[in-house]
Design goal:
Shape: globular
Strand order of the largest sheet: 24-23-21-18-14-13-12-26-25
Distance between the termini: 28 Å
Largest sheet: 9 strands, parallel
Structural class: alpha/beta
Helix content: 10-25%
Length: 650
């Protein structure tokens, strides 16, 4: 059962697509105060588990920390960070009382989940203008499925998007991309996509291509497609201010950029230098910006990733002036000693809260200050693309995923989890984040395998790939200046060929489970407790996940480990894909086990009475041969395989 409570004058985020009439009275869970904004307080039982919050730090159980829904451009995802790139205000309290809460509020919102006091859940925001949805159900899993139904069907990508992709900030010329493809194809390591970061553009201008480097871009796209490679370019939020750049001139003429309070176009520095932000909360501006994707689609592009759409701000003219004034005063002091204050003043120019208060959106004829709806920008940038795709190529699926997001964006694209680091802790964070994202509708998800920032290691890439085998988005991505981490850069390339090959061997199963989850408003990744609600030990396990109805995964995420401990809530078959192409199989009883897993092995567990399809490895999705299909797992079990053409819109 779902009840909707309306407080004040909420902004219509369009996160919820099902019409629900407001309830009267007050919610039965917790105490609500409207004295200073909105504040909900609930006393938790000592054994309560709190799920949700989508793209958030730490564990599957969110108890014990303070989370702030405030889409943030912060690449340093350490344990103390309260905000990441997404804002997903859905939680479930599971225990003595079990209920879900979705607080549809587009500004910053705090979730103090046993941080200030271990027994207190405190949710607060600045303005008492929001819709609160209270969901009751049989258990946490039932509540998720009810929530998923009211927010609409999850995005469905083309089937090639379930192949492996290689990316790196710094691929600039056709030769760079050709060398990547050659490195994979010559070594017979499967690959379907190569991503184009900001260097493919002309001066970092959206929807342009550097004509000096790519004099015949369509021809190059076609050349790559002949190699069964899809090029996936990046699109950023900021539009470069430059006379003669038609998108800038069009947007300025039509008034489609975000404004300052005085009506002038807001200016912020991002990669191109000074830019304007398209006002994607304005339906007309959104349609205009989305229509520009056709420029690249017409040249054969069939996938994109949206970036810098929190929106990220390096600085503004106002912020620069403030620092200059500070520096002038500082330098005029005879005994001034440089210190933390000086460094902090300069560093605070990026993504300044004051800058987010300096610009406005036009919504239904009204000016809305950006910080009040900050979390909706990435959602609506990706929505702009998704709505445009339906007009440009109505019968075709286009790959689309974004960095910043809010609940509702899941209908238009997936997300990647942003600029992580080549740290073992981020491999574990990747694993723990997946079911929480699924709870909020985001099914097409994944992290930068091997880590984006810092220098990676061979063993970290292999272990991370062994997790990436199971994430719908499987992409190796690295930052400019870091160690090259394409799979062919390391010794014993056959190990990488095998691990990525397992992805293609399992792809019919993984694609089937993704499609079933999307079409039935279900989850692809689930915590063990969702499948085994009466098992108290399963509720404590955070480093193993269920996929679909048939398998459990338990990746190795510790450096130098030769295996790991696992907990089996029931008898399961322990499966390992071995480097010689064989499949190891052992039946293990319910309980605790130590399993050995080599660096070049991919483990999974098949539930009692279940089986899954496996095919021969292929070098791209289009070359998977379904005639090689066989079933592994329990004999006499059956599996329902979902198949379609992988490209037609659904």
């Amino acid at each position: 059962m779902i009840q909707k409570y309306v407080f004040g004058n909420p902004f219509d985020t369009e996160a919820v697509v099902e019409k629900i009439s407001p309830a009267t009275g007050t919610p039965q869970y917790g105490t609500i105060s409207l004295e200073n904004g909105f504040h909900l307080s609930y006393e938790m039982d000592k054994n309560d588990i709190v799920y949700g919050l989508g793209e958030a730090n730490r564990g599957i159980n969110k108890r014990g920390f303070l989370y702030i829904s405030n889409c943030s451009d912060d690449p340093n995802h350490t344990e103390n960070k309260n905000s990441l790139y997404g804002a997903h205000n859905f939680i479930i309290v599971s225990g003595k009382e079990t209920f879900g809460l979705f607080l549809d509020y587009p500004g910053a919102m705090k979730f103090d989940i046993g941080y200030t006091r271990q027994d207190k859940l405190e949710i607060s925001c600045e303005d008492a203008d929001l819709d609160l949805y209270v969901i009751e159900g049989e258990n946490a899993y039932d509540i998720v499925k009810q929530f998923r139904k009211i927010i609409g069907r999850s995005y469905i990508p083309p089937k090639f998007a379930f192949g492996f992709g290689q990316s790196r900030w710094g691929y600039t010329t056709p030769e760079d991309f050709k060398n990547v493809v050659k490195g994979y194809r010559d070594n017979h390591v499967p690959i379907d996509m190569v991503y184009m970061d900001i260097d493919y553009m002309q001066d970092y201008k959206d929807f342009t291509v550097n004509e000096k480097n790519f004099p015949d871009f369509k021809g190059f796209v076609d050349e790559m497609k002949a190699e069964n490679i899809h090029l996936i370019p990046i699109i950023d939020a900021g539009v470069k201010i430059e006379d003669g750049y038609d998108i800038y001139e069009e947007g300025k003429e039509k008034g489609y950029f975000c404004k300052r309070e005085d009506g002038s176009d807001f200016v912020a520095a991002v990669w191109p230098g000074w830019t304007h932000f398209p006002d994607v909360l304005n339906p007309d501006a959104r349609a205009w910006f989305g229509g520009k994707y056709e420029r690249l689609i017409s040249q054969g592009i069939d996938g994109f990733w949206n970036d810098m759409n929190e929106p990220a701000i390096f600085c503004t003219p106002e912020g620069v002036k403030n620092v200059k004034d500070f520096m002038k005063d500082f330098l005029e002091q005879d005994n001034a000693v440089p210190g933390f204050l000086l460094l902090d003043k300069v560093g605070s120019m990026a993504n300044s809260p004051e800058d987010y208060k300096r610009f406005y959106h036009e919504v239904n004829g009204q000016k809305v200050r950006h910080d009040k709806v900050h979390n909706l920008y990435g959602f609506n940038m990706t929505r702009a693309a998704g709505e445009a795709f339906q007009k440009i190529v109505p019968d075709k699926r286009i790959l689309m995923f974004s960095r910043s997001s809010y609940i509702g964006m899941h209908r238009y694209g997936g997300i990647w989890t942003g600029d992580n680091q080549s740290w073992w802790s981020h491999l574990l964070l990747n694993l723990k984040m997946m079911p929480s994202l699924n709870m909020c509708g985001f099914l097409y998800t994944g992290a930068d395998l091997g880590g984006f920032g810092s220098d990676t290691t061979r063993d970290l890439v292999l272990r991370w790939l062994a997790l990436g085998v199971f994430t719908p988005l499987m992409r190796n991505h690295a930052a400019l200046g870091t160690r090259e981490q394409e799979c062919y850069q390391f010794e014993n390339i056959e190990d990488f060929r095998h691990v990525i090959g397992v992805r293609y061997r399992l792809l019919p199963y993984l694609y089937s489970e993704y499609m079933k989850a999307a079409l039935n408003d279900d989850m692809y990744f689930k915590p063990l407790a969702f499948e085994y609600p009466d098992d108290s030990m399963a509720a404590q396990v955070e480093d193993q996940l269920m996929i679909g109805n048939e398998i459990m995964i338990a990746p190795v995420y510790t450096q130098n480990a030769t295996g790991r401990y696992v907990y089996l809530p029931e008898e399961m078959k322990f499966i390992k894909f071995m480097p010689d192409g064989s499949i190891f199989e052992e039946t293990l009883k319910k309980g605790h086990h130590y399993v050995e897993v080599g660096l070049n092995e991919v483990p999974l567990f098949i539930r009692s009475g279940k089986c899954i399809p496996v095919v021969d490895a292929a070098e791209c999705v289009d070359k998977i041969d379904m005639a090689t299909k066989m079933m592994i797992g329990y004999t006499d079990a059956e599996y329902e395989l979902y198949e379609d053409d992988g490209i037609s819109a659904l």
